[in-house]
Amino acid sequence: MNILDYIVQNRERFYEELYSLIRIPSVSAHSDRKEDMLRCAERWTELLREAGVDRAEVLPSQGNPVVFAEKHVGEHLPTILVYGHYDVMPAEPLELWTSDPFEPEIREGRFYARGANDDKGQSFMHAKAFEYLMNSGKLCANVKFLIEGEEEIGSPNLEAFCREHKELLTCDTVLVSDTGMFAEDVPSITTGLRGLAYWQIEVTSASRDLHSGLFGGAVANPIIELSKIIAQLVDADGRITIPHFYDDVDTVSQEEKELMAQIPFDETEYKKSLGIKEVFGEKGYTTVERTGIRPSLDVCGIWGGYTGEGSKTVLPSKAYAKLSARLVPHQQYEKIAELVAEHIKSLAPDSVDIRVDWLHGAEAYVCPIDLPMYRAAEKAYLQVYGKRPLPVRSGGSIGVVPVFERVLGVKSILMGFGLESDAIHSPNENFRVSQFEKGIQTIVAFYEALNA
Fold first, then answer.
1. Using an 8 Å Cβ cutoff, are 241 and 232 in contact?
2. HSE-up of 185 (CA within 13 Å, CB side)?
3. How far apart, in Å, are the Cα atoms of 413 and each of 94, 307, 327, 364, 410?
4. What is the pLDDT of residue 254?
5. How far is CA 401 from the centre of its chain?
6. So what's the pLDDT on residue 447?
7. What b-and-e string marks burial along 22-31, b requiring 16 or more CB atoms within 10 Å of the CB?
8. Residue 16: is it exposed, middle or buried by C-beta count within 10 angstroms (0-12/13-18/19+)?
9. How far apart are CA 105 and CA 300, in angstroms?
10. SS3 state of residue 309
């Protein structure tokens, strides 16, 4: 039986098994979800055992548990480590969801649920591709699964886990489906990820909230001062103003820029899909370049004072902001974390106190397109989609991918099947059923290409 027939024959079972994962609200950002994290990890081991692995177990880490499973076929065959994560982003604001985020629905050819794409749906494709290869006797590689529960909070404990279990995780390459394609009719493979650094800023004026009539004009308003500081971090040309921020930015060759220019990008449709009037970013670069090969700085949240219904004449004691930077190859997040924190502190006036806490970070990653494993992935997309996939650098970050290179000494192949319209991290996250099924087919084709 070929993979298409296998999917058709087992489609309803596949869906129900995926739903059993999605229904568990494994939100790593919420400390009260520890039992759900363990429950989801245990469900993953059940599904992997049913798919045919030799062993599947939940292993402890310094944080949420990690799922490990493996199937050994032969000593001289390549070993593929499949990476995924079972934790999901918080679903809030719940009122913006059309349906219950943890009760999956299929509407207009899409799974709707938190985790439908990121990353339960995409990880689950690997389990079903593996199941088919096992049942058809076509598995031509040793396969290991590593599915963690902290990716959405920066994988703070996975590097230590990988170091502790380095021998267990030995492999020839890591296969990851936690990225996307350029479009359903334009297949692409992610060849680069930006790094990340993340901070929280706290600005304090008085020791308590004050009456804005009695103290306004005499005491600094921390929200105003914080806003002034933030406004100085990026100039009118979209360039980050922090001294030495660009010192280590990797220079992309003209040849690669020309390849990037071949990516079919419709700026008018892009603006329409996002509901924006104009794009904005660093002067001298295209939108594709800005999100793929250039760093960026963003305010992810800002708050302080009274925000409830009606009015309250208060001069707040504190103001807060969360700040993130996306980094490119050769920018070390530890170095950037210190640069940014010191610069922000230098901008604060004497009328307030300021604190800058670094929360987490990740390195950037680049995968050469001449690797044998990349070529196998390329052949797989060509077979299923009928087009050679474009190599695309993503603006996102997956912190564990550079960890695999640093600790295990192997490259990762990022075979993602998500689309921009999937609304990951947002209300009404979804995943096209067609992409889910084509993803399974493409993963099967990847293993077949290894033996070609």
1. yes
2. 2
3. 34, 45, 20, 14, 10
4. 78
5. 10
6. 98
7. bbbbbbbeee
8. exposed
9. 30
10. coil
Q: Which residue has the tokens 């594709």?
A: 288
Residue 108, both tokens: 């207009």
Which pLDDT does position 258 carry in this prediction? 77
Distance of alpha carbon 8 from alpha carbon 11, whole angstroms? 5
**Secondary structure element (H or E) that encloses residue 353, with its range:** strand 353-362
Long-range contacts of 306-314 (CB under 8 A, 24+ apart): 313/211, 313/212, 313/213, 314/209, 314/210, 314/211, 314/212
Residue 451, pLDDT score? 81
The pairing of beta strand 79-85 with beta strand 142-148: parallel
> Do 367 and 411 touch, CB atoms closer than 8 A?
yes
d(CA 420, CA 411): 25
**Residues 6+ positions from 177 with CB-CB distance below 8 Å:** 84, 119, 122, 123, 125, 126, 414, 415, 416, 417, 439, 443
Q: Which of 125, 263, 252, 258 is nearest to 181 (CA)?
A: 263
d(CA 242, CA 325): 12
Q: How far apart are CA 136 and CA 113, in angstroms?
A: 31
Nearest to 73 by CA among 50, 49, 53, 46: 53
User: Which residue ranges of the chain lie beneath pLDDT 50?
Assistant: none
Nearest to 194 by CA among 331, 32, 387, 354: 331
Kind of pairing, strands 188-193 and 365-366? antiparallel
Distance CA 266, CA 287 (A): 10
Three-state secondary-structure class, residue 267: helix
pLDDT at 368: 87
Half-sphere exposure of 317 (CA within 13 A, CB side): 5
- Measured torsion, CA atoms of residues 349, 351, 353, 354, in degrees rounded to the nearest 10: -30
Any idea which residue has 């971090």 for tokens? 233
Long-range pairs for 93-101: beta carbons < 8 A, 24 or more residues apart: 93/427, 94/427, 96/427, 96/428, 97/427, 97/428, 98/428, 101/427, 101/429
- Whole-angstrom Cα Rg for the chain: 23
Tokens standing for residue 339 = 């640069």
390-394/188-193 β-pairing: parallel
Which tokens in the block code for residue 173?
Answer: 């390459």
Alpha-carbon span 162 to 170, nearest angstrom:
10
Give the Å distances, CA to CA, from 235 to 238, 241, 292, 296: 5, 7, 20, 12
